[in-house]
Amino acid sequence: MAEHAAGEHALSLPSGCRETPPEEYLRTFAGMASGSVQFGTETRVPVRLDRLPWSRFPWMVVIGLGTVWILDGLEVTIVGSIGARLTEPASGLGLSASQVLTAGSIYVAGACVGALFFGQLTDRFGRKKLFLLTLVVYLIATVATAFSGSALFFYVCRFFTGAGIGGEYAAINAAIDEQIPARVRGRVDLIINGSYWLGAAAGAVAAIFLLNTSIFAADLGWRLAFGLGAVFAVAILLVRRHVPESPRWLFIHGREEEAERIVDQIEADVREQTGQELDEPGDSITVRQRTTISFRAIASMAFKLYPKRTALGFSLFVGQAFIYNSVTFGLGTFLVEFYDIKDAKVSVLHSWTAADGAARAVAAGRRADSGPAPLLGGIARDGRVRTRASRLAHGSGPA
Predict the structure, then answer these.
(1) Which pLDDT value is given to residue 361?
(2) How far apart are CA 368 and CA 193, in angstroms?
(3) Which residues does 140 contact at the CB level (< 8 Å), separation at least 6?
């Protein structure tokens, strides 16, 4: 089996791809990668990692890296819950409703910029350096947000908080996919991304307590809410220090000896933990090594080689990052201003939604390794059932 490194991972042609790109295309694409090391280097690093049993190592990857989605859920829900409080003069910030929504838009813009910027850096300098750096960026920015005294300062802090989270998405997704065994990768990815709802639930429950003016002053509780993310980020940072650099990344960038040494250590730890010998790895694969890759090369691969997958991924991204976040960031403000609902009840609503989202992520995890069609089909059916139930519950009749 031959795989050619042309993107974040070695470029392979899945069975679902209708046409095999001609050799000229592969040569052109490989030529876009600056600083190419060599072509056709054989390795068993990927197959050695993929045949490992579930053990302490993948748990360390999941806990150290996957918990970033908890931070994102925490950030989005906290802002949605405290949005109405930020519009009060007593909060010390006194934003207008439109300014609260603008802050949400700036957060998403920061996430987009951070994903592109730090994503390029993580391919150039390594996964580990960047997943430590992006977490520090988030940590500093979210702490600074708690000390906001003006709308402009709040905007700047939200942009860099989003940039840190966006950078985390780029570095962490690559690191997780490269180190989790292939047979459970889809399931683990979905459950990890579903942990967003754990952060959302934590943020909603914390907001109920922190927005209670009989416990905390109106200008203090919302500031402490942002401090929660910082505390959690420090705990993640302590675990993340022990996660090694991705062996796949090392090999693709011409650092074979380091990659082999890390895999040797992982295998030794698994043998010691399980008390069993590991199965022999499969055949080696052939990888095109390179040091970095340009945005032009990435765009060429996405739109020429995988246009349908790119369109699907982009539509899912827009639905999550723009449509969902736009509703969540402004939900508290909308409900308080137009429906006269108290802050605490908004947080309760967020917690219910988060609990439901977490349960659905776990349930969908069983279909994640069966391919995109069963997974997305199941999610669509679930959405239709819930829409009909909601219409009936509100007396609108069947959909």
Answers:
(1) 67
(2) 12
(3) 160
